[in-house]
Specification:
Elements lengths: L1 E2 L31 E10 L3 E2 L2 E2 L3 E7 L2 E6 L7 E10 L2 E12 L15 E7 L4 E6 L10 E5 L5 E4 L23 E6 L5 E6 L18 E8 L5 E8 L14 E12 L2 E10 L7 E9 L21 E7 L15 E7 L8 E6 L11 E9 L1
Antiparallel strand pairs: 1-8, 2-23, 3-4, 5-6, 6-7, 7-8, 9-10, 10-11, 11-12, 13-14, 14-15, 15-16, 17-18, 18-19, 19-20, 21-22, 22-23
Amino acid sequence: MYSILPLFFLFLNCSSCSNNPGTSSPDTNQNTISAVKFIDEFVFPDQEINGVPIGGFSGIDYQNGKWYIICDTSNPPIRYYEANISYTKDGFQDVGITNMIEIKDASENPLEQGVVDPEAIRLDPATNTILYTSEGSINNGINPALIELSAQANQIRSFTLPDNFKANATDDTSGPRHNGVLEGLSLSFDNKGYWVSFELPLIEDGPEPTTTDTNSPVRITYLNKTTGAAERQFAYELDPVARKATLGTTFEVNGLVEILAYDENKFLALERSFASGYLDGGNNVKIYKVDASNATNILSLESLANATYTKATKTLLFDFETIRSQLTRTTVDNLEGISFGPKLADGSRSLVVISDNNFNSFFPQLNQLIVFRVVP
């Protein structure tokens, strides 16, 4: 384990109200969401811990008064962070990374380069264990995974995923797409299992989204935490890509980057479209409410392309374009983590979204943190 003294950043315009400890698990007495209202943005400065850069914030969770952030890197040390994040209805108060924890394998050895590609993180308060998803590397034959860690960050188990989740680099007619696999993870509302979600459709299910409307369903799968087995799966339809690539570039994509259960069979979905060549970063991000109550269990369907089934319904909850002008550099960055946070002083629930700066590998990006008030 690496550690540093907490790095806190004080916002002087905040009120004196403070957060109450709690968990990100949905409150059964307040499990309706009609809107979310923007409160504030915070941008993490460039920092290091023992010479290791802080960044790549791909997933975030809040449980038992503590924040957890997964680092999206396949280069050692494979890690997650513990953080202090506090805010009021008026804005952020203190934000800082407090620890960097290196993830180990089942033999308590550090993970080697390329073995995992972490994307999402949740702490299960019932077991006091950490769950994280890995996209693996489809092109290199490394399977995606859902992995459970002990409180000491040692691997306890890797869940048995459906066969069609496995890397299939030699077959371009079926299987997961490279860099489009297990992006999302949520505890189930009853906390008896875990939901994992793909970013892009399986090849046999449909095409990647384009700027024209396509039939592009992604699979969201429920795993029983006791047996480790997949028991249910439903389809979520992706939007088209929001805008065409520009300035002579061609890369465009839209995918489901995170899910968060807030009621039985109901989720928040973070959907992100990207097009290259834009000075504002090229991201268009939306939060949808998703209802899978009447969705077909598609677990046994080998292909969705010609199948008859009912998808989950989706309703737009928030479009980040509505606050772009209030954000740093008018940038909606690479948002891909979402979590409920502690209640605000008036009893309202809070919601936090975080971005992955990719360690500025492609162009200058932000480790962006955005907080909302949830309106029931």
